[in-house]
Design brief:
Blueprint lengths: L1 H17 L9 H21 L1
Length: 49
């Protein structure tokens, strides 16, 4: 039983080490917030000139 448990632990760590990493996609709200900040910076820069 102990050997079976150790084999299961080794296989689970080996599978997670070989698996491709999951890329996190930003949420649309985050992208909208970044876009709004960029537009605000451009407007502020334009008004400064």
């Amino acid at each position: 039983m102990r050997a079976l448990f150790s084999i299961a632990v080794l296989m689970s760590t080996a599978i997670s080490a070989v698996a491709a990493p999951v890329l996190h996609v930003p949420e649309p709200e985050s992208l909208a917030l970044v876009a709004a900040a960029a537009v605000a910076m451009l407007v502020a820069r334009r008004n400064k000139k």
